[in-house]
Every structure is written in structure tokens, then in C-alpha cells.
Amino acid sequence: MTQMFNSFLQHLDEQGLDPKTIANYKASWNKFSKWLLQVDPDLKEPGAAIQRDIANYKRHMQAAGGRGGKPATESTMHLTFVHLNKIFRYFHQQGMIPTNPVDPIQKPKAARRKPKWHTRNEQNAIMREVRRSKSKKDYAIFTVFFHVGLRVHELCDLLRDELVMNQRSGSVYVRGKGFRDRELPLNADARYALESYLADREEGGSPYVFTSERSSKMSVRGVQHIVEKYRKRTGIKNLTCHSMRHTFGHELATGNPPVPLDQVAMLMGHFKETGDPNIQMTMIYTTPGLKDLASAVESISWT
């Protein structure tokens, strides 16, 4: 990593971005840097790229820049240029380069985002299968995803002494970086699932809410493995930790009545650099799925 890019990574870290998001920025930068240094071995700093370099890289991706020498997909190209634009804009804002070479380049079209949430029937099928397993821990994990909307690493980081659960209310404190900490309410379903699971846990044990047989703290991979188990059992192919979090956001944004998007953004942990709710990011949860569109058309049927 070059000094310029390391500075950008530190900037992302200070913003409190999800580690997976930061890893995606690294991947995009590494691929671009590797290509650029192969094309121009005399260039010592990829951050010194000019507009022509960016345009050539776009043509490279369109021709054979993807896996196996195949052209990159629309979504990959679009995301790569979103990353490069933000990276070079940062370099420019910090006075490291005179201009942002990505800005004048026509951006690749964004592929239409496909909804990743689950219908009520799918949610019911998933939770019935989880209940059938008789695992209180699995039931609590799935309930927290569907009713609190945590990221998988946030679920793993939950601390027992930061859970507040009363008969009619409850909350959990989710630690982020800087202004990204947030306190989330726990509804009756989440409280019941957590209380039932924790009642079987030994007092004075691990400080974390979710543990495994081998560790005092569940790992991200451990949670993903549990979810994959139920994906196979239910046959719901798009079941992931993220799809359940996405379902939480969608249910809020499209409910009757819908929850205001600034509130959804705060519950989901979507914030701007200023600390204000990022409503633009949260609008993805309002994107209608095929069943939503079918219901809309069916509502005006004459028969």
C-alpha cells in the first residue's frame, strides 16, 4: 500500500465504515494499481494516474478485465469506478494531486439493484425451521437479524451488560466508531428470544451475548455457517445475514404506515460524514420487488 492510499484507509476507518466496505475499497485499488503498474512500470505512485489512465482502465475492464479474462460485469465496473472516484477525490481534497482524474470520465452504467429482502412467507418459513431445531441461540440470532437489523459483526460484538430488557421495553447499545454508536430499541419478539437464550447461559461467563462451544465470542464466520445451514434446509437461496438485515430495513420503509427514512437510516446505522442520517443510502429499502410490482398491477384489475 502506498502512503497516499494508506491515508485514505485511515480516513475511512475514522469515518467508522464497515470493515467489509473498507476491504472492498482495498480490492478495487489493488486491481487498479496492479494493472497501472504493469502498463507503466516507471510509475512509482498509482495515485499519480491521469485521466487517460482511468479511461484506458475502463476500456481494459470492458474488454477483459474480469475474472478469467472475461469482461467485467456492469455491477463490478460501476462499483469499481465509485470506489476510484471517492479515492481520487480524497487525494485531490487533501492537496495530494491537482485534479480528480476520474471525475471527467463517463461512469459505467449502474446495474439495477435487485431486492435482497424476504417476503413474509419466507420469513415465516425460515423462523419455523429455526424453531424446529430447538436451538435457542439460533432462534435468538435470527430474531435479532429480522427485528433489530444488525450487521453480522455488530451481532458478534454485542455485550450482555449493554442489553436492557424490561417487561414492556428494551434496548441494546451498538458500538461503532466516532458518531456511529447507536442505541436501538428491542421489540417484544427480540426481548423474548434473547431472554430465553440467555436464561440458559451461565452467570459470570462470557461478556458477549453470543458465544460458541469453542470461544467466548461468536465469530462472523460462525454466524454465517449457522445461516448457511438454514439456507440449505429451507431452500431459500438468497438467505444470508445481510438479506435478513435488508428485510428489517424494507419492512420499516414500506410498512403501513411507513417509518420515515431518517428514522430508518438511524436504525440501520447509515450516517453521513457529518453524522446526519444518510437518507440516500437508505432509499434502497424502498425499491419494489417483482411481487410488489405484481400486487400494484393486480390492484387495478377489472376482474
Automatic annotation (TrEMBL):
Record bears the keyword Amino-acid biosynthesis: no
Record GO biological process: DNA recombination
Region (Disordered) location: 99-119
Family annotation (InterPro entries): CB (IPR044068), DNA_brk_join_enz (IPR011010), Integrase-like_cat_sf (IPR013762), Integrase_catalytic (IPR002104), Integrase_recombinase_N (IPR010998), Tyrosine_recombinase_XerCD (IPR050090)
All residue ranges annotated as the Tyr recombinase domain in the record: 113-298
Alphabetical UniProt keywords: DNA recombination, DNA-binding, Plasmid
Designated name of the protein: Tyrosine-type recombinase/integrase
Organism: Paenibacillus amylolyticus
